Inverse folding.
């Protein structure tokens, strides 16, 4: 009896201690919560309309605890095998491995095999792509950070709907107080977020408000069904989109102090950790020409940079004819290869940002295999 009295509390206390110890070592975050953090950092609405971004592969179970993330610029078969070896349960791939629609999931193409391996091994795949390009502090700002002190602004700011709505509606009705009150009440019932303004005209009343496109359909149906006889005039105006500060496509960098072409190329190679880049000198230019403005676009920048006035273009790749156009217009062109102008963002910036974002609950690993497929020899 004495032995039992001594052992019982001792075992119970030990088990409680083990439980607390195990809980303190539990790491991870639910996939849905993790995705919310990523979308708060770079909303998917910022991505280009043609892009395929966000959560591309999701395990079938309702709950998916992410304890380890692998960061990669391109999700190749080799990188997928690396993720499996490292027991990763989520891959953050800058480029979306699913871009064009997949009509089948077989072993016939490498992209299908990558998706199949992710599904079989319960690995989630998330791709931010152009959302990371345009966001403040994203890929293009990282690319600009290695060029020298100066000012940086987007080549084209991202436009978004204003906070008050996408449309303005002006309605003219007879000056009948009870009818106007009824109209205002029903408008607010249709959209509780609108702010209805009422102003008196000479013989009539002007009712105006701003709303979003979704509410507009509902409101127009209301007006046509319940108030059609009292409407004297209805005008609907589309509101201009609002540019987001420091957010948008590409960047234009203006240096505090101009430097030679040679110096700028050295800075670029150092920042991208490359021994070589491709360089097309401006027509009639020389290595001693001074560079004050650099227009940049991570990845493939031919269409984005076209027509931009600058002393130099920096991007990953451009077509032969786009390069000819640029140098003929007196612009130096530096090409670092597509993914070389993107990859450093994950290594130099985002891995640390992500660790703080996730409160250190998820292990973050950088792919050691991911590399640009083009090698300059």
């Amino acid at each position: 009896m004495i032995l039992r009295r001594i052992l019982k509390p001792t075992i119970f206390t030990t088990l409680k201690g083990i439980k607390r110890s195990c809980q303190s070592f539990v790491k991870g975050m639910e996939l849905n919560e993790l995705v919310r953090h990523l979308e708060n950092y770079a909303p998917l609405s910022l991505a280009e309309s043609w892009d395929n971004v966000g959560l591309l592969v999701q395990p079938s179970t309702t709950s998916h605890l992410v304890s380890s993330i692998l960061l990669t610029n391109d999700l190749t078969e080799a990188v997928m095998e690396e993720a499996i070896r490292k027991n990763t349960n989520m891959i953050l791939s800058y480029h979306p491995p699913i871009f064009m629609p997949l009509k089948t999931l077989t072993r016939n193409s490498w992209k299908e095999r990558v998706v199949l391996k992710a599904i079989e091994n319960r690995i989630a795949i998330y791709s931010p792509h152009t959302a990371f390009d345009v966001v403040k502090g994203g890929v293009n700002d990282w690319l600009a950070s290695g060029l020298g002190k100066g000012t940086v602004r987007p080549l084209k700011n991202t436009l978004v709907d204003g906070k008050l709505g996408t449309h303005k509606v002006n309605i003219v009705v007879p000056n009948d107080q009870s009818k106007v009150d009824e109209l205002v009440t029903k408008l607010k019932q249709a959209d509780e977020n609108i702010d209805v303004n009422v102003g008196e005209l000479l013989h009539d009343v002007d009712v105006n408000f701003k709303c979003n496109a979704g509410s507009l359909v509902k409101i127009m149906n209301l007006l046509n069904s319940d108030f059609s006889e009292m409407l004297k005039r209805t005008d609907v105006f589309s509101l201009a989109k609002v540019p987001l500060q420091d957010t948008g496509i590409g960047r234009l960098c203006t240096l505090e102090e101009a430097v030679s072409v040679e110096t700028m190329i050295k800075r670029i190679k150092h920042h991208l950790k490359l021994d070589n880049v491709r360089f097309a000198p401006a027509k009639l230019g020389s290595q001693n020409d001074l560079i004050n403005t650099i227009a940049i676009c991570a990845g493939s920048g031919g269409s984005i940079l076209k027509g931009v006035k600058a002393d130099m273009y920096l991007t990953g790749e451009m077509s032969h004819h786009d390069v000819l156009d640029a140098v003929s217009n007196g612009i130096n062109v530096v090409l670092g290869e597509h993914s070389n102008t993107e990859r450093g963002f994950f290594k130099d910036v985002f891995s640390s940002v992500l660790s703080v974002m996730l409160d250190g609950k998820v292990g973050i690993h950088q792919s050691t295999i991911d590399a640009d497929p083009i090698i300059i020899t």
